[in-house]
Amino acid sequence: MQNPTTEGLSLSIFESQYDAYLLTVRGLSRSTRSLHHHVVHRLLSSRFPIGYIRWSEIRFNDFVQFLTSEFARLHNRWTQTTWLMVLRSLLRYLSREGHIPSGWDAALPAIATRKHISLPRGLSQEQVRALWSASEGRRPRNLRDRALLLVFLRLGLRAEEVANISLADIDWRSGCLKIRSAKTYRERALPLPQDVGEAMASFLKVWRRQPTHVFEPRRPPFTEQRRRNHVGNSMRYLFASAGLTDRGLHSLRHTAATAMVNGGASFKDVSDVLGHKSITTTLIYAKLDLKSLMRVALPWPGGAR
Hints:
Layout: H1 4-7, E1 9-10, H2 11-24, H3 30-47, E2 52-53, H4 60-73, H5 77-96, H6 104-107, H7 125-134, H8 140-155, H9 159-163, E3 170-171, E4 176-180, E5 187-191, H10 194-205, H11 224-241, H12 250-262, H13 267-274, H14 279-282, H15 290-296
Antiparallel strand pairs: 1-2, 3-4, 4-5
């Protein structure tokens, strides 16, 4: 048997190194890094089935062939675009480390996407009222659902951000809430609307024990993943109770952003509240600011029709 060191770099070691880069340099969340790991592992394990990588043997065509075979299997355009993004990231990293020539990432085939062609799918006023009605009541479950609904609708938080709200994050005196993002690994402070604060306080008053986080499951283990599952399951049950089985949690985030934009908030303000890394991500909501768009719209050539 050959000495592994003569066969090349261990695939598992490289994957650990690349994951550390994605975490410490790019600040990607666990779920995004998991996607990178999946795509990169499929690529490299198919190219180097013995589990040891020889960078001197890899060619640009290996990446093209991998994309061709995977795209034949992955018919969803969004998934194809995501995998292509992952491979571009990998190629930039390999170039930076000196394993491959520079420029391979730009040479990968492009996929025609229709980014921002459709409006974000928020909830209608009737659907919000249905959720509001479904959360009515004085039982602990009702108070929890009402508090969760208000947090999502008023602040536009991600599910993992809601699950991570601890009692120490709430400054009741100044009306401020600290948000820890698992996606961007950044903290931000948001004003705590009065109705949100009152709803959380009402829920905590009926809680039988002193929790560490606001939205915790009733029984242990009280891990981060369990809190996420608890928040997600609670909201899915509320959506089902309101008859909205075809809508998901992210529609609440879109609804909150839409309300902020149409209420006159600047895109910078909306970006700060939502915790976007780039304001470019927020600009999709520009289509929803219909009043502002009407003010800058060009007149129809030849007069009104």
